[in-house]
Hints:
globular; FAD/NAD(P)-binding domain; seven-stranded mixed sheet; 21 strands; eight-stranded mixed sheet
Amino acid sequence: MKVRCCIVGGGPAGMMLGYLLGRAGIEVVVLEKHADFFRDFRGDTVHPSTLQVMDELGLIDGFLKLPHQRLQKMQGMFGGETVRIADLSRLHVKYPFIAFMPQWDFLNFLRESGKRFASLKVMMSTEAIDLIRDGERVSGVKAKMPDGIIDIEADLTVACDGRHSLVRERAGLEVEEIGAPMDVLWFRAGKQEGESENLFARIDPGKMMVTFDRGDYWQCAFVIPKGQHDAVRARGLTALLDDVARMAPILKPGLSEVKSWDDVKLLTVAVNRLKRWTRPGLLCIGDAAHAMSPIGGVGVNLAVQDAVATANLLASRLASGCPSEDELDAVRRRRAFPVRMTQRMQVVVQNNIVNAALKPGNEPLKVPFVMRLVTAVPWLQGITARLVGLGVRPEHVQSPDRA
Length: 403
């Protein structure tokens, strides 16, 4: 197979970039190694910045018809005291809320919407296993399909294959580890009809948990110290669920659905970024270029922003062949500042809140001064809402529409 652009990975960055390049008339193929998009612990917070992109693409009406829940006021319990983290209703944007939507619905929607572009092909059950090279230049990928191996030649290969990117590894790109003090246990609890609660995060001495209202069930993220998964399992599932029920009594009836450790998935948290995003013929974006902490739920939205910036900068150039490495590096130059600033804010939260929450012992937690100030001064909740909901320098669609 020969295409203008081969995108490895069908996550938010890969599917959005595939859609944008297909819309621009660029011959592009997206490779997704799984047979479907159903992954239980993929991020599912769609922020106003991404909703704005969907609106600019003319997709927002159909998108918001998909089942989702909306969040405007982010509140939490910190050592028994209620705090308000952000109020998205204060944003002067068209869609001032976070949409909680399973990521598989988001990705399926992009795939279905992209079927109208003859130049876009999405290949499921197709896993990139190596790079094809022409001297120093990456000229495509070797991929494994259910019926054998295929060589896909491409003027440009884009790595969107996540924080454990095989493409990044094969290209020999160096990763700068920033570190995260936590991992996450991810599980569902049943939800009774009419049951609701506006608390987003709960922090007690030695424990931290985030809950998402998914309509017919609660999605739970129980935060544990980095590398302590075996120790938590050694205490037993009952001990974990007892901790959860004490922190969030509303979940207690639904915890009966967590029957074994098979129902509890471990999400290993990493915060890192590439020093260099490119090789000749190759570009990394999304988690392949910068893994984000789950703090703020910004990972999906950073990946979408990367895809929009990539299409803005490269779509027209791709029409006539592969951009030079300097032209490819324009994506890093555009996106590096938002990535660094977002990761810096996540590290501040890790150091001042997560570390304190996960510290062993039963000492009473004190609400940090900044958090207390934001709770007391409503207009500050608009500033935190902007940082969470729109991020640093949000992107807008400027790539051509030749559909």
